[in-house]
Amino acid sequence: MMASNYNAKEEDGHQPAAIGHGGAGTVKNKKPDNTAFKQQRLPAWQPILTAGTVLPAFFVIGLIFIPIGIGLFVTSNNIQELEIDYTGVDMSSPCYNCSQSYSWNSTKPCLCSVPFFLDQPFESNVFMYYGLSNFYQNHRRYVKSRDDSQLNGDKASLTSPSKECEPYRTSDNKPIAPCGAIANSLFNDTLELYYIDPNGSRTAIPLVKKGIAWWTDKHVKFRNPGGNDNNLTVVFQGTSKPVNWRKSVYELDPSDPDNNGFINEDFIVWMRTAALPTFRKLYRIIHKKTNMTPTLPLGQYILEVTYNYPVRSFEGRKRMILSTISWMGGKNPFLGIAYITVGSVCFFLGIVLLIIHHKYGNRNHSADIPS
Amino acid sequence: MLRRRLNRLFGRDERKVDSRTIYVGHRPCPTTEALIPPKFCDNRIVSSKYTVWNFLPKNLFEQFRRIANFYFLIIFLVQVIVDTPTSPVTSGLPLFFVITVTAIKQGYEDWLRHKADNEVNKYLVTVLEDGRRARKESEKIKVGDVVEVVEDETFPCDLILLQSSREDETCFVTTASLDGESNHKTHYTVPDTEKNLESLSATIECEQPQPDLYKFVGRMHIYRNDQEPAVRSLGPENLLLKGATLKNTQKIYGVAVYSGMETKMALNYQGKSQKRSAVEKSINAFLLVYLCILVSKALVCTTLKYVWQSRPGQDEPWYNQKTQKEKDTNLYLKMFTDFLSFMVLFNFIIPVSMYVTVEMQKFLGSFFISWDKDFFDPEIQEGALVNTSDLNEELGQVEYVFTDKTGTLTQNNMEFIECCIDGFQYKYADSGTELDGFCVTDGPVSMLQQKAGREKEELFLRALCLCHTVQVKEATGQGDGVGDGVENQVDGVMGLDGEMIHPADLRGFIASSPDEVALVKGAMKYGFKFLGMESKNMRVMNRNNDVETYELLHVLNFDPVRRRMSVIVRTKSGDTMLFCKGADSSIFPRVRQEEVDRIRMHVERNATEGYRTLCVAYKLLSSEEYDQADTGLREAKLALQDREEKLMAVYNQVETGMSLIGATAVEDRLQEEAAETMEALQGAGMKVWVLTGDKMETAKSTCYACRLFQRSTELLELTVRTLVDPERKREERLHELLLDYHKRAVQDAPPIKAGVTRSWSSANQDYGFIIDGATLSLVLNSSPDSNSSCYKSLFLQICQNCTTVLCCRMAPLQKAQIVKMVKNSKGSPITLSIGDGANDVSMILEAHVGIGIKGREGRQAVRNSDYAIPKLKHLKKLLLGHGHLYYVRIAHLVQYFFYKNLCFILPQFLYQFFCGYSQQPLYDAAYLTMYNICFTSMPILANSLLEQHICMEVLMDNAALYRDVAKNAMLRWGPFLYWTLLGVYQGLLFFFGVRFLFSNPALQDNGQVFGNWSYGTIVFTVLVFTVTLKLAMDTRHWTWINHFVIWGSLAFYMFFSFFWGGIIWPFLRQQRLYFVFANMLSSVSAWLIIILLILLSLLPEILLLVLRKPRGPHSRQKKPVVQSGEGETQSPRSSARPLLMRTFSDESNTIL
């Protein structure tokens, strides 16, 4: 800075000598280390992508992707899927009445049965989904309206749920368990499936409700308060059921203590908020009985719906989906098409590049790699 | 600083009106009725910015003035106040970190300034107070104090010299730290002041402080026992400047006239303002673009949100009721908070981490400069010094180089090379070399063999010994390096004498010009030794060791217009002789033609070799002639008006009809590899301007030697000399010349394509422009009424069309003015100043990049510079190597950062269309926070520190590669658009790829479905991999660190995701990611989509890489040929003498 000592320029030849003498003795050698790092001379690999190196890659990608794509496409096409909209928008649909005369307080459940015909037998395990449309499970106010520590069995949170649960936090000055908008809006339609024999008799299809939720959710993330105390009624004493629920959380599945309370699988599945406003959630699984008969033989079926869940107010739709599952999950032709497309594009680019490379290759070759 | 500026801005006019009156020694004067002590500022120097008290508010204020910091502060406040999707910690913590680190750094720097200030302000000086000598701290000196300064001390303030310990009422001063002139200057006491300073009663009237070092006007009234006060005029020769050092004079007394911040030095000091690099400006521009993107995104979302909500059942479906508070909120307030929430949600598009990373990159990157062993100079045992890390990349963008001459281009170390007496060449060299057909061996021997008459030889040597203003500095007992040098040199000549170790040999010479010292020493080599002055008598020891004395009658001083100097001496025998030496062009017309013919060849050959040549002539004056000259000179010297002109007339009259005796050749040694460095800089497309305080001739020859002027360069000269025209006013002449030059250099020049190599194409005429300080001030400060306001732009246009501009006789502030002018010219080019002396400080501070050379002229320049290097030659690597790499690195860093955050945030934006515009984040909070901090920061940091897209050696060898990145090439809108489009493409791809996959969320083979967090995690995984692999593809220089960091951070991402989702975290309110990542990996579809999307996003990049022309040796251009036979095109008007280029890199011992 300005205000420091103003060294005059010494007579020529004088100062360097003086510094040279004094510097060597007193000042420690400030010579920078001659390490590869400090001198920016670390050994380095210097790859250069040229047409020559990339060309094979394009072909390889093309050759790998196209078969994968075809595989995916075929797999997806082999998946059998049946979708039934039972919302009851049309006058003609069986659930029209139920969808119109809706009231939360009605004690009498509204039942409707939707007949459908299966023109192809479902050979392997069949997964039964319910689907909702225009239901914003991913709305921010909705997504955050839950208390995971309450669901994890935390006693303190049970009695005083998180503020995030507002306005579904307390009811009648009692804490709601489970609190929050997600729990409150638990999907509560009951779906039952009957096979109509050609002779006219109805056979109930056994629907398995185990294994529909993630294993970790069921066994770690969701815990009933009070550990293994089976008397959930006592555990949940002092709490209130969610306002829109008909029954308390400990009455979700009284028959099976492993599926009751917070660890009820239907509840857990619902609590995993969907990514998009149109979504499906796993409802039941129909296991294949023997190797001989198909899980669902072709024929006439009836879907019995206990219509509880109102969606008309927000122009939503309700669906029931029956689907088989492959190694890639449910039916989705997108992945296969995408792979085939990308593979073809790569292959095509490879050809184009090959042509370019052949035509102008000489020029590119001369300028290959900077040392 | 600010106060001073304000004063200068607003107070100038009122101050100019009055002059200041100073009472010497604070004694009232008889004439003044009452002593009103005038208020002057104290002698405190303040260069620090903060005090303990105002540091925090002032520093915070300064920091939040930066657009980025302010923006983050706003975001942080919004997060605190409004219910936003992300926590305030995510932006508050990094901001706090950045602010704190910067504050600590700036506080430390200011503390250093305080320390330096104190060092000066607390320095003890001796002040005469009421007849007593009192020791005082420097800052307590008041205007009017009489101060005592002893030898080798610097003056604590601007003083008027009252008394000197030298009997001739002079003192010697070096102003090296002020204007860079290392020679000793003679200053004079005010004539006829009393010897007894205590009884001196005087007032000084002088102008108000002004920064021009060479101007001072004042009057001194001396009151003596009720007599009429005597008036003495004061000029710059009476003024001792603060910062200058007293030399060769035991002590002086002076009265303080300007103190503290009003001293000329302080006025010449420019506050060190924060320098911003062009890259930072680009960043700010991009930032604005992104800010616009951000705001428009938020606006779009807010608007759509309310449009969407207006549909029945959407705003508040039964399953998703609002809280009472939300219902109560005013609609417009809600809209506003929604807008702010969107802003916060998307604010990651401008991440605070970019600033942290850029700062880190700059800070760490600058270590490579100080670590570089190529910058290490064994002579001073030091390497390069980095004072600011903010400007690393600016080193790769330099368009104009302003260089000091003395000590920067040259070593300021003159050496006598040879002389020519009466047409015969004498070369004092160790090895006999054949030159001009003469066999030249050791000096004295060869002299006897040659035909030049002994009288001529001795006359010539006597002339060298007499015609100068050199002082002899008596050696001190210990015999310093200077004396040793002399002795060694004398050795060979006086070897026969027994009394070689004569005390008088241990002496140094002090002169106003190093050439003179070189000449005197040159004469000594041949046996004539100047012993010094003894009361107007010059003593010379001749070859026979006899001491001859000459009475010095007159010195006809050197001036740049006459370009010669003379002395008139009287020999013992009573003869009066005039010896004259000067530039050939000024001597030749004044001597007989036949003598000229014999010597001209030698002079020209010497000039061709880059030496500074002087011709020596003499004249025997008859007593009448002398009397006439004597009276003429005396009269002229006493003249009060037009003294200069009158003196000049007498000089011209006396210096005629001389006879030429010989010529000398002196070499001003260039710095090592100066010419190569300059050539490389020009090859890299930089324009080199030489700004020097030195004489024009000297500077010009240096320019030739440095190959800044080529032999084909046509010189346009605009100096005092060319402006001298008896018929017209200077203004008119200036106007005419400017127009003429403009026509030649600008209008007639063929239009040049930008970026095309110009200086080497043979078709174009190179122009060199020369201007001096006086003319420059005429150009810059010309009166507004005349049409001269266009001078400046004319001048600038001419300069911009010249390959080299030489500005000589520059005051420090003028240097800064020039730099400023170029800096602010069209296209605001990046300027670099390099210098080694305190006179370069102002231009070092003014330029975008200031480089200090750790030379001999003190550490002023080094301290004020941004980078300091030991030698000029290091500039080449600093700019072409480091600068280029840093620029490429940081440009890539900046573009990459914007890109990676665009494709990070775009899916989040798109997600709003699918979640009811509810500000639902796509990614988990941990991912949002960690993305820029952990997952993607290290690879780009490592890349921006280690990347060498072209390796250092290649960059150094091909200066033209520098042009590839010129004009901020990598940060212009084109590349920015490319990166932005890439980001948009990839962002769209990520989001919609996964969107289509999620049209059936049953992605596991057990039929279970994925939720919104799985969606985000898949997108995020694709994002992290794509962004990292994109960087991997850009990396051309894979060291183990790059490998480690790139693969390491991908591995870290995987590990972190497992870990984060593997535990129920007790401190989290929501376990959103619990086992989401593991479940994702168990799904084949997720794997397939990830692979597909990564590949597809990188595909265009791969294609471009393949199709783009490879860089590197391809652009290696063949080295420009320096001389391509352009000599024929040389203009006859050119004042350039043809010069053969010499390399000056050979280092021989320096002599004095």
Give the amount of beta strand of chain B, in percent: 15-25%
Question: In angstroms, what is the radius of gyration of chain B?
Answer: 37 Å
Please tell me how large the radius of gyration of chain A is. 34 Å
**Terminal residue distance of chain B:** 42 Å
Overall geometric form of chain A: extended
Residue share in β-strands of chain A: 15-25%
Q: Tell me the total number of β-strands of chain B.
A: 35
Task: Please mark out the parts of chain B with pLDDT under 50 across 5 or more consecutive residues, or reply none.
Answer: 1-17, 430-450, 475-506, 752-763, 1111-1152
What is the total domain count of chain A? 2
**What order do the strands of the largest sheet of chain B run in, or round the barrel if closed?**
14-35-34-33-15-29-32-31-30
Average pLDDT number of chain A: 83
Number of helices of chain B: 38
- Multimerization state: heterodimer
- Helix- and strand-based class of chain B? alpha+beta
> What spatial order of strands do you see in the largest sheet of chain A?
1-10-3-8
Q: What class would the helix/strand composition of chain A place it in?
A: alpha+beta
- Give helix and strand order of chain A, one letter per element, not per position: HHEHEEHHHEEHEEHHHEEEH
Number of helices of chain A: 11
**Sequence stretches where pLDDT stays below 50 over 5 or more residues of chain A:** 1-28, 364-371
| DSSP strand count of chain A | 10
Helix content of chain A: 25-40%
